[in-house]
Amino acid sequence: EIVMTQSPATLSVSPGERATLSCRASQSVSSNLAWYQQKPGQAPRLLIYGASTRATGIPARFSGSGSGTEFTLTISSLQSEDVAVYYCQQYKNWPLTFGQGTKVEIK
Amino acid sequence: EVQLLESGGGLVQPGGSLRLSCVASGFTFSSYAMTWVRQAPGKGLEWVSAIRSGTDNTYYADSVKGRFTISRDNSENTLYLQMNSLRAEDTAVYYCAKPQQLVPSWFFDLWGRGTLVTVSS
């Protein structure tokens, strides 16, 4: 099983500042990596797939990068509506696995 | 409207059974693989099971293998999860989700609102 490890657990960022979230895979997943955003009481929403492709309707301030075992989700200018938990997910191998999440809050 | 609607959750005793349903609308359900993902209270996401568009290819997390069965009825646009021998650690919100692509790369662009399963005596 591929273990996905996200850091930090919680990230406090001032409005308008950059937020950088990390995701590490225990073995290479190539670019088979997705990012999701989950707000309280809501289902997850797909943000990024293929490590760097934004899903339909996702604002340009969200970007993804990386390949192999190291990945980054960047929110270039944090907005209040971006407060949420963010999860990475690998889909290279079965079982599909998620990271434990990074909670983004406003400083 | 493109949507997924889960139902069938509730309170069940340890060792009991429950069947979850997920009704799809607004897209060609029969053409897409589908999956179940769960989230224990206050915890992260855990993939549970997946099924390809044909019904003969299924996948399970080790934590549910041998206890849960995924199936689908393409004529009814419905996905199922039969859960047997339930344990306290199966307590979670269960989401059904659809992959973005017909030839599935297993990331999910459509999610239901979830149904809560509570396993407790």
Q: What percent of residues of chain B adopt helix (DSSP H or I)?
A: under 10%
Strand-pairing-aware structural class of chain A: mainly beta
User: Helix-strand pattern of chain B, N to C?
Assistant: EEEEEEEEEEE
H/E element string of chain A?
Answer: EEEEEEEEEEE
The beta-strand count of chain B equals: 11
What helical percentage do the residues of chain A reach?
A: under 10%
Number of helices of chain A: 0
Biggest interface pair, counts? A-B, 25 and 22 residues
Query: What's the number of extended β-strand segments of chain A?
Result: 11
The N- to C-terminal Cα distance of chain B equals 39 Å
- Major sheet characteristics of chain B: 7 strands, mixed
Strand content of chain B: over 45%
Quaternary state reads heterodimer
Instruction: Report the sheet-strand fraction of chain A.
Output: over 45%
Low-confidence runs of chain B: none
Number of helices of chain B: 0
Given the C-alpha coordinates, what overall shape of chain A results?
globular
Structure commentary:
The complex is a heterodimer of chains A (107) and B (121). Chain A has no helices and 11 strands. Chain A has 107 residues and is mainly beta. In chain A, the strands form 2 sheets. In chain A, strands 2, 4, 5, 6, 9, 10 and 11 form a 7-stranded mixed β-sheet that branches. Chain A has a 4-stranded antiparallel β-sheet with strand order 1-3-8-7, with no helix packed on it. Chain B has 121 residues and is mainly beta. Chain B is 0% helix and 50% strand. Chain B contains no helices and 11 strands. Chain B has strands at 3-7, 10-12, 18-25, 34-39, 45-51, 58-60, 68-73, 78-83, 92-99, 108-111, 115-119. In chain B, the strands form 2 sheets. In chain B, strands 2, 4, 5, 6, 9, 10 and 11 form a 7-stranded mixed β-sheet that branches. Classes of the chains: A mainly beta (107), B mainly beta (121). The A-B interface holds A 1, 32, 34, 36, 38, 43-46, 49-50, 55-56, 85, 87, 89, 91, 94-101 and B 35, 37, 44-47, 50, 59-62, 95, 100, 105-109, 111-114.
